Amino acid sequence: MTYSIQSIQVGLPKTVDYKGKEVTTSIFKEPVTGPVKLMKTGVEGDQQADLINHGGVDKAVCVYPLDHYSYWGDKLGGSLGPAAFGENLTVIALTEEQAHIGDTFRVGEALVQVSQPRMPCFKLNVKHGVTKFPLWIQETGWSGFYLRVLEEGNVRVGDTFSLVDRVEGHPTVLEVNQLYYPKDINKEQLRRMSQLPELADAWKKAFSKKLANA
To answer: In terms of CB atoms within 10 Å, which end of the chain has fewer, N or C?
Structure first.
């Protein structure tokens, strides 16, 4: 199966009105054809408004699969424009079921690694005006995910992802989501997630907390 970049998006913080309050967000991104450099702490030309919850080494590049766009367009009652989820890379075929935590890919000139799911937040409400949207994403597990950049380099629209390394037995992004928003608590799986080396530190701490409270 071929995984590739369908589009690249970057954006700067923008202040908008949301329910009578000013909200500053970078979720409104615009397409660029590239080349665009993937850097250790982010994407060239892109800035984050909330550096606590976005950006950084474990969340350098936000990815969302084009494969889900049709479903969400039907759910929201209309076709979706580019970067509908505020992602930097919209990708073809590399879904949450296909991407495993720790997967290392060569894409363009860069070497990247899957680090964690993207946690849906209220900024998606701001963009789409649907309060339940983050909940719907949790229910499907179609969250998108983040990449850490192991080797900086340029990428372009159409570049393909070539798998360099996969640790056998590591969970998919979808499986991590299903454990984070579980119907039933599995302590052993929570323990495993809390100790998974390639999973972002923030998620390991979150799983440790869930285990302590289980």
So the answer is: N
Q: Kindly list the distances between the CA atom of residue 199 and the CA atoms of 57, 78, 203, 211, in Å, as whole numbers in the listed order.
A: 12, 35, 7, 16
Record the tokens describing residue 183, joined without a space.
């119907």
Beta bridge mates, 42: 39
Determine the 3-state secondary structure of 81 from DSSP: coil
Q: Is 141 in contact with 96 (CB distance < 8 Å)?
A: yes
Segments in the chain below pLDDT 50: none
CA nearest neighbour of 9 among 54, 58, 43, 41: 43
pTM recorded for the entire structure: 0.93
**10: closest CA among 34, 35, 38, 31?**
31
| CB proximity list for 75: less than 8 A, separation 6 or greater | 136
Q: Please list the alpha-helical segments (H only) found in 114-172.
A: 123-128, 133-140
Task: Identify whether the C-beta of residue 71 lies closer than 8 Å to the C-beta of residue 78.
Answer: no
**pLDDT value, residue 54:** 64
CA-to-CA distance for 7 and 110, rounded, in angstroms? 16
Distance CA 148, CA 39 (A): 9
Q: Are strands 36-39 and 153-155 parallel, antiparallel or unpaired?
A: antiparallel
